[in-house]
Amino acid sequence: MSSSSPSLPSALTQPSASQQQDNNVVEARTNESTLICKICQTVVILKNMTTEWLDEERELPLTRQTKGIDHTQTELVKGYFGVKDIFAFENVGFTRSADGKKFLVCGECEEGPVGFVDPNTEMNYVTPERLDVLQTSV
């Protein structure tokens, strides 16, 4: 996991009411910062475009897989911003793994995955752990 990201979720979110959904804690929150790709610096999602925060761990494939291994290597990543409307993203792409899961990647350089699509709710979840915050000049 990246150590360059600010502490989450307080640094990137505005808290609101929370709800319990399928044993996962989902809170109504938005991202306070624009999130960009760590590799190409392309804007993935502008600030205040997310609608919820999913505070749970999910396995995501590693961004770099080791050659010669016959399975997908994964890591646990905690914390995801939720977006219902795919058009809320500035630049995102989709990929499918061998087991049919949909993942989100940078739409410019295809780095990722930076999130996943929940097949039950069709919500798109992006993690700030795999993205950087756009630094604005003061």
Automatic annotation (TrEMBL):
Key words of the record: Guanine-nucleotide releasing factor, Protein transport, Transport
Which GO terms fall under molecular function for this chain's record? guanyl-nucleotide exchange factor activity; zinc ion binding
Is Calcium included in the keywords of this UniProt record? no
Query: What's in the GO CC field?
Result: cytosol; membrane
Query: A GO BP term, please?
Result: protein transport
Classification via SUPFAM superfamilies: Mss4-like
Give residue spans, biased composition: Low complexity: 1-18
Q: Which InterPro entries match?
A: Mss4, Mss4-like_sf, Mss4/transl-control_tumour
Region annotation (Disordered) ranges:
1-25
- Could you tell me what this protein is called? CBN-MDT-9 protein
Origin species = Caenorhabditis brenneri
Taxonomic classification: Eukaryota, Metazoa, Ecdysozoa, Nematoda, Chromadorea
Q: Which gene encodes it?
A: Cbn-mdt-9
